[in-house]
Structures
1.
Amino acid sequence: MTNNIIELRDVSKSINDHSILSDLNLEVRNGEFLTLLGPSGCGKTTLLRLISGFEDPTTGTIFINGKDVNGLPPHLRHVHTVFQSYALFPHMTVFENVAFGLRCQKLPKDEINQRVAEVLKTVKLEKYAKRKPDQLSGGQQQRVAIARAVVNRPLVLLLDEPLSSLDYRLRKTMQIELKQLQRKLGITFIFVTHDQEEALSMSDRVVVMHEGCIEQIGTPRQVYEAPQNLTVAQFIGEANIFDSEIVAVDGNQLTVNIQGKHRTIKSPRSFAVNQKVHILVRPEDLRVWDHAEVENSNNMYPGVVEEVIYKGTTVDLMVRLANGQLVAATEFFDEDDDRLEYAIGEPVFATWLSGWEVVLPHETP
Amino acid sequence: MKHISSSSYLTAIYLFFYIPILVLIAYSFNNAQYSLVWHGFSMRWYNDLFSDSDLWVAVLHSCILGISAATIAMCIGGLTAISLYRYHFFGRKILYGLIFILILSPDIVMGISLLILFSLLQVTLGFWSLLLAHITFCIPFVVVTVYSRIVSFDEYIFEAAKDLGAKDSVILTRIILPLLWPALFSGWLLSFTLSIDDVIISYFVAGPDFEILPLKIYSMVRLGVKPEINALCAVTFGLTLTLIVISQVILRKKP
Amino acid sequence: MKHHDGILKFFSLSIIWLWLVIFALLPFCLVTLASFASHDDIHLLSFPVTFANFQELNNSIYVKIFKQSFYIAGICTLICLLLGYPFAYIIARMQSRYKSLFTLLIVIPFWTSSLIRTYSMITMLKPKGVISSILMALGIIDKPLSLLFTDTAVMIGLVYNLLPFMILPLLTNIERLDNRLVDAARDLGANRFTTFRKIILPLTMPGILSGCILVFLPAMTIFYIPDLLGGSKSILLGNLIQNQFLIAQNWPLGSAISVVFTLMLAILLFIYWRSTGKKEHREFL
């Protein structure tokens, strides 16, 4: 018996000969918080609907708890969904909404009352049991939707962009609450979002999807710090990309040519001499120096400040390099360093510490 | 200035709508047979009216017809609207288009075509022919009323119910019907009114043994102005008004 | 379970399809067939199949009635639009808290039996009726004016009956119009007239078209309005069909008239359908 609660084997889905998902393989571990992350239209919601049973895969098999669920209707899968719009029944009270699934199973009344009360307490809504959905705030409605699903004790809870209709502040609070709730319940959560920040901050593992394919599966740190390709790198966080060429290889020590300057960098991947590569540097890793601070500009790239964006804890700079490329740099305020007063048009040097970059094979865009 | 001109325009149109009806009601209390001049308040035309047993038979017939037609049309139309929304099936667009054409098709064409049908099938013209005809012209209005309400729902509530283990029958009785009853009720009311008011279609498919109110009024009106008809129209108008107010009050309340 | 769900679907769909086929499609096919039947004194419909009914329609009397019906219905639609549009516009943009009352006052005539409303017009229009008496009292005319049994009376009756059908779709449509669009147009320097022509009119076109359809179609066929208010000359298509079926007992000819009439309407509706791009068809209730 494996520890995987859900397994997808070569799952594809096409609608009207239009391929939505192709050859997906995915293993969801029991008890984890897994996020499906991708831009809208990447197929993440379709994947969720395949798992929940609202749609059937064109080819491939889905196992839930080791059982092939092909053709099994949604409510027999021990998987429940929290919908984007919550889909609360507007004519029922909170209690009736939550009790709905249990009543469909025709459980005894006492057990229903007890389980509903229990779950309402867990989501801190016990005082609102008699209210109707339209008398609740967005965050409360959200919790009713979750309560309505978890009261049936599913193996897996599927959440389809459940936070997207909340405002920014409430979303932040709900992110924390959801994460805590998941730990408390010990249920596997599969969470769909297009917000990379949300994905990184909540998940145990992130599945990055693009155009119906899984690009990378990994912990938030892995997908951010070691993206497997340009798509992942560009979708998760911002990235400056330098086109470059390998000049020399010595073990995992590479010498590359970036805009006419040679640099020595490290990469766990192996590359051949003359191979074209992308060098990826996150804005927070890019350092900007003004001319007075620099003595040796060998390893540095000259440019001109084009835009200064003050953000409170950081200053974002847009720097136009000598070859015309625009790069972004995020400078953190440092109490010892008051030289963050950059002027637009000021000539500067940009560089980064070797080892903080990521080297990816060249992709034709 | 602009305000004055627009309110006087509104007033003019409202007067156009209401003066004839109000005059009619006023005359129904006038103690004179033909005169336009006020001869004092009188209830005698109402007495005449309420003692006209033929008329009461027609009213009774119309009510039976209206209630049955509206109820059956509400059931069939409601089920159709729900199916149009919930299921994907062959000919869904054709069905929708057909219902639309039926609303737009002229009453008179429907009247004669049903007359030909009934005469070929040798259906005796009377209650049953009227009932079938009335159900037929009411169904599309119910479908449109209910459908426009059902599309305003969050489509995911049906999926959510299914996800929680509800069978189709449970979804129908516990989710759809409780949410839809205002729309079903207004569909019923619309059908009832259409049935009670219909002259054109009924004119073709009614038989001599089953007289209904609109045709009775029509035949009375054709014979000329009589104070008794004034009273009848006043009563009917009063009833319509009551129904409208009731429906407004009930439909204003949200589920 | 699947089986059970299927039953409900099967039941609903078969009942509506059966109903529509038996009571809508079949009867219409029968009318079409009847229009090719022959007429004799014993049978309402009989063989052989003939085109005679359609040839008879070429008769100048029938052509004249067709023309007159379309003309009167057209004028009536135009009057309703001209009267109804400003009215609907004022109510729709009204800020008053009595707005729902004003709307209700339009809904009431909409729901009141049109037969009764037609009848109420008789009292207004007849010689020694209300209008005539008022005009005489004001000294504008010196002998009773009989408006009743004229084409004018038919027109007044039609407009009186059908105006709510123009106003209500317009009202819903104009209410949905985003006020900010009008403000934006004014802000960008458009004057009242340009704003109306370039912004308001195109955006309320669906309402205008639904209203026109809802007025134009019945205007030709409400046979009891010409019957009660018009003279013997005022015969519209509705009266013609009714005569052929119930008085002349010439069903084939009546059917032929209906078929030609339906075809003309179908063409009109098709043009409308194409011009609005098939959307917004459930606008009008």
2.
Amino acid sequence: MNNFPILTFLTFLPILGMVIVLMLPKKQELSIKITTLLITGIQIILSIFLLMGYNFSAGGINDPSSFQFVEKFRWIDITGFAWIGKIKIDYFLGVDGLSTPLVLLTAIVVFIATISSWSIDKSVKGYFAMFLLLDTGMMGTFVALDFFLFYIFWELMLLPMYFLIGIWGGPRREYAAIKFFLYTLFGSIFILLVMIGLYFSSMETLADGTRVFTFNMLEMMNPANYTANGILSPLNPNNLRLIAYIALFAGFAIKIPMFPFHTWLPDAHVEAPTAISVILAGVLLKMGTYGILRVCYPVFPEITYQLAWWIALFGMINIIYGALTAMAQKDFKKLIAYSSVSHMGFVLLGMAGLNTIGISGAILQMFNHGTITAMLFLIVGVIYDRAHIRDLDAFGGLGKQMPIYTGFVTVAFFAAIGLPGLSGFISEALVFLGGFGSDTTRIFAVISTLGILLGATYMLWTMQRVYLGSLNEKWKELKDLTAREYFMLVPLTVIVIFLGVYPSPMLDLMNASVNAMVKFITDAQGVYSAFNSF
Amino acid sequence: MEVGLNHFLVVSTLLFSMGIYAIVTRKNAILVLMGIELILNSANINFIAFSRFGNFGLQGHLIALFVIVLAAAEAAIALAIVLNIYKTLSTVNIDEIDNLKD
Amino acid sequence: MTESVLINLSNAILFLPVLGFVVTLLLGKKIKSIYLFEVFILTIVLLASIVLAFGKLSYFPDDKITAEFEWFRLTDTFAIKLGFLIDNITVLMLFVVALISGLVHYFSIAYMKGDERYNRYFAYLGLFTFSMNGIVLTHSIIMMYMFWELVGLSSYLLIGFWFEKKSAADAGKKAFLVNRIGDTGMLIGILILYLTYHTFSFDQIFASISAGVLPFNSDFWLSVTGVLLFMGAIGKSAQFPLHVWLPDAMEGPTPVSALIHAATMVAAGVYLTIRIFGLLTADAMMFIAIIGMLSAFIPATIALTQNDIKKVLAYSTVSQLGYMVMALGVGAYKFAFFHLVTHAFFKACLFLGSGSVIHAMHHEQDIRNMGGLRKKMPLTYATFLISSLAVSGIPLTSGFLSKDGILASTFAFGSLTGYWIFAVVGLLVAMLTAFYMFRLVVITFHGEPRDHHKFEHAHESPFVMTMPLTVLAILSIFIFYTPNPVSAEQGWFLTKWIDSPEVHTPNSTRFDFMQSNIVEQASLSGHGEIMYSEQYTEAMHSAHYPAMFLSLFFAVLGILTAFTFYQWKKVNVDKLVASVKPLYNFSLNKWFFDEFYQKTFVAGLFGLSKIMYWFDSKIVDGIVNGSATVTHALSIFMGGFDKYVVDGLVNFMAYLSGFFGLLFRRVQTGKVQTYIVLVIFSIIIFFFFL
């Protein structure tokens, strides 16, 4: 079991599935769907195995030896090629408490999105092939520890997403797809630039003692590995680390999406099919915050300290601005999209606290937002499948017509509002405590509490417009949930309630890593300030 | 008055000029060929004259002989060409023979 | 009887209602009579709470029993613990909640009969009971906040129980959101507490305050913290200026109004203030007293003119809650809790009585269509009358005792600090209360029936409805609290059951009359029981009789006025109303609070959100799309440049060479003779220049 390359399987199983799907004849839609379901099901089983073998006390972050399920071997090895010198790139996978919750989240959300994709009827084969490719891209991003590999997975996920929105989307799908694609690509350029800058600034020592430039993230986190005159080296008095940090942050921030880079999100969500919205909100947005925590924070700890105030400021803007904008929406899906903007602000705010409570809250919020928003989009999907419109004002009184559905809606809405007993509360409370605990971010935490008030306002107002009041006669024929919809909503509801009542398992999972991260960033201050005195 | 190098050179220059004149002014291809023969012979006179008055041994004579042979060969080929031109174009007026221009 | 028994009982009291909630909700569709399970559970909870109260009060009267377990832990210093704090106040409050909840369950069996979501109603009641018990039992502020939100949820669900009615759905939303405003303040208060004390437990916080640890090391911030926490109470107890949700909440079923919006949940705010009493400074208490005073006065004036039987009671509730809050503000800790308990019983009785009337009148709530009901519904009338006397503060009732205590405290407070305003307003409100309550009683039960059709069909309610009324009315009699009908001071309730409050704030921040003279011990043990100063005891003593007689006088005056106006009709009410029309309208329209909030905050919020969306779609997205457009335009321009300039240059070169070619082509005549001429001339020129 120990030698079983579980992360490789988790990552590349969908590619295998894609090959199978592509080999199946076009007409066999059912077997295509079942293949996808099986593949994603196996992914869930693998991630459960991952959890069973997980060592809860290992920290990870910057210490290669405490990463788990590590797979590392030389992938690209070019020796002495003209002026470039040696290029050595590792195939380096591993998980710690930062990535495991997100691997789990990806497995769950993709599985549920597969069930949700059952109703796709337009070129099924292409859809599921793209869907599985997307799965690989996301999973790979979360387990890659080599920056080069990370970047490849990051970009790999873009292409299928473009087609999934652009072909299977709504009426303005092409606009939305191009906007999404260009926006994210724009961010990727920054990431690429910083990646190359870091590559030419940091070196790792090989087994034979020679030193070569490295893409290994963990090596980049060690200030001792930097060359004296690298452009992003702390040893270089003219280094561009601040600018590089901002560029890298902006690259990730587009994915979060952070104000003012958020406008691709509502368009993408509104046009994307339900399953893709679920993945987009459930997993893709987390890649931005994950990237910041995985790369920005430990590679540039001293700049992180310097800019924590700004991160919290943008977190606050996201929370308040997203909530206010959500309130003005008439389209159900757009409202949920803007609520995502608001909720991702909590992640930023928690991260900016730079303490265990805040960062734990941020990671937990990533997971919780993934499940809750997935639920919310499924809920919109249920109503859209039946009525074929999403206009909030066109409904009313569905609570009477579809009581069970409305029960799930109530759970999801109140989880989004942050009601105690449901998972959203724990993470938001931790974010507030963490944000308030740091002198830099305290004021933003206080202002952000308005977010929970505004959140309740738009959610309950939506609840009232769509589900309460007298039943609009037009919708007398709407049926309550089907078995398939039950199957999507029940697991998520269980997770939301379970983590609300008993968050310990999830917090324990990330705890060692969060503590390691906080310790690393705090300790790094001394190390980096020593460099600056040169 | 002894006949010196200059006299030979004058004669050959006159011959050369007459040859050039013939080449430039005559429209008949045969006459142009005759002009060329004149130029060749003026050159021969020069060769012989320089060979006689200069200290060059027999080289001038040899080259003059070559030129005569070449002139014969050239005349034979050129007349053949002119004959063929006449056959195809029914003229030996060189102003009209400008098909290569295009 | 050991402590662990008490803790196990508390566990049962807390978690059994969850079981009831889940089972009733999930099986509600399948099993028609599953509600009986919930009723059964509540009966057990009621019995358990009686045993708990009995055990606690008789075996551990002076102990604080705490139990906690670690919910989750992040670092060595940060762990969130959930737990119980069981003292006398806890068990008394639990008993009140369980009793009223149980009675409301019984009452609802008949009242809600025939509703299509009958079982779900009982499930929600179970959820509410669970959340409320959580608030009462908790030992930490964060756990209180959690259950605080959960009662908000159950209140939302129950107010909007008949959500097909737009007004009900609106009211539920309004209640939740207005509460959230207060909760936001409370949350900030909790954040400050955690930052300062690194714990959420009341006991540990108080111990740290006694040890001199203050938020941001300043008295001011301690006051601010107290006020922020109290904001939660402002929301939940419907205090001014957030009182607007409670009257609207009357859209819910009447038993729910009795349980949640009269007796228990709205009292949670007062309960919270009692729990945090130890950290309130004089400034914070002054703030609380002023809020309480305004909340006692404003709704009392509104209640004068309302015609909906439940609205009158709702405003009366806000007013009485204001009384309790004001009592806490002036330091009358015991009387505030005493009034909470007595009020819970008689107000629940009043609401259930009104429910009985509404049930009999087929969901008629306007008192102008009632009248003469006492003949048809003698038992309802009798209980309603007893509770009305209690709320008006007439001797021999429990309300007289508690209200008198509060008024005496405001008198004492006035004489010691010079702020007599609370005493004056207290007396005024006592009179107004007596007036509007008897206006209600007279119009509803006395005189001639106004709607004969409905009157004919009216009937006394069944036993399951009258039984709770009877129980609650009996509990409104003085004997359960003290043997002396004019003073509760010596009764067991105030001497044996409720301890003096513990105050932990630094002496310099307290009122002069609340100085602790055992500071040294306090800082050692973490328990600083306050000693009211001798002057305070004297002032209380000398204020007792004046306050009692004055309040009695005003109450009787109010009652007599009500009878004069509506029973004996000595005064033409319509004429009187016409003569003070603006005032009347002002009161009838609830001081225009709703309109004001609607026009300012709500409209402002929606306006802001529209502006934000405009900003988002036009400016932010405009920049994105604009940059796309600019890029596109630039690409068209570059395309043009490429096509016309770069490519044009290449083509121009070709053209140029073509042009010169044409030019020189003239020379190429193909005529050898011409060439030769040229050659010769060239050579001549060449030689010439040479």
